[in-house]
Amino acid sequence: MDRNWIIRSTWFYNVNPALKFGVIAALFIVGLFIHNLNTMIWLTGCFFVSYLLFTGLAKMISFWLLFTAFILAILSSTTMIFFGKGDHVLFQWHFLIISEESLARGLHIGLRTFLYTVIGMLFATTTRPVQFFYSLMQQIKCPPKYAYGFLAAFRMLPIMYEEFYTIRAAMKVRGMDRKKGIKARYTKIKRYAIALLSQSIRRAQRTAVAMEAKRFSETSGRTYYYIMTYSRYDLVFIITIAGLVAAAFWLSVAFPFTPYTNVLE
Predict the structure, then answer these.
(1) How far is CA 264 from CA 36, 136, 225, in A?
(2) What is the rounded average pLDDT for all residues in the chain?
(3) What is the per-residue DSSP string for 84-145?
(4) Cα 177–180–182 angle (5° rounding)?
(5) CDD domains under this entry (predicted)?
(6) Of 27, 40, 204, 236, whose CB is crowded by the most CB atoms within 10 A?
(7) pLDDT exceeds 70 at position 2
């Protein structure tokens, strides 16, 4: 995450990245087996509030990320809402049929999409890439050649971004973007793709040769510039996540919003 976007650093930034990744992955798996609509509502609400409290991003950046998550949730839910099956029809127009059952299932899918997006953004916005890959090597024992390879690829993204604007400026100066139409657009995309891919392949080859020459494939006796360890923040993080999940399950029983305890039935 670009540091220019971060206006404050919360304690989520101090959690061990490998541990945070494991807990987030476990949350994704737990979410797959939640079919209670009330539980999904409360769980989404809890992690939405957590994102607002712990992300530390600038308000405008956070707003656009949440807006994107909201759009993805709507797109994922509309298919089930409009074309799902159900006995209690609420609205019908030609081939569009909305029933109580399809509405509940669509809302459940939309909430799950929003929940996954928010959890993913919470991890991405509170984790520094370099520390994450160092943590993978030290805590999970990921082979250095893969960890450093992914880190090198991650660092190439800004370079590709700059190259794209350079290629576009060069084409604009030469008048190669004046033509309109589908064929001209296809030709433009082809030129961009060939130029970017060829440069990326050359750069990846040079990086791979350099890493091999510097013995990045060796795993024994390797030392690290950053030493990633566990701290009290990791325990607080586990307790916080477990508390949020437990609170969502309890609130879904104590204060249900809908009668749908299993959207699959």
Answers:
(1) 9, 37, 51
(2) 82
(3) ---SSEEEEETTEEEEHHHHHHHHHHHHHHHHHHHHHHHHHHT--HHHHHHHHHHTS---HH
(4) 110
(5) EcfT (cd16914)
(6) 40
(7) no
Residue with tokens 């909430």: 111
Summarize pLDDT for 233-242 with one digit per residue, the tens.
Answer: 999 999 999 9
The torsion region of residue 56 among left (phi > 0), alpha (psi -120 to 50) and beta comes to left
Tens-digit pLDDT profile for residues 114-159: 999 999 999 988 888 888 888 888 888 877 777 777 777 777 777 8
pLDDT, tens digit (0-9, with 9 covering 90-100), for 182-198: 777 787 788 888 888 88
Residue carrying the six token digits 């956070």? 62
Neighbours of 265 (CB within 10 A): 7
R_g (Cα) of the chain, nearest Å: 24
**pTM for the whole structure:** 0.78
User: CB under 8 Å, gap of 24 or more: what pairs does 20-24 form?
Assistant: 20/123, 20/126, 20/127, 20/237, 21/123, 21/127, 21/132, 21/136, 23/237, 23/238, 23/241, 24/119, 24/120, 24/122, 24/123
- Tell me the backbone φ, ψ of residue 216, rounded to 5 degrees: -70, -15
CA dihedral 65, 71, 74, 76 (to 10 degrees): -80
Weakest-pLDDT range from 28-37, 48-57, 137-146, 230-239? 137-146
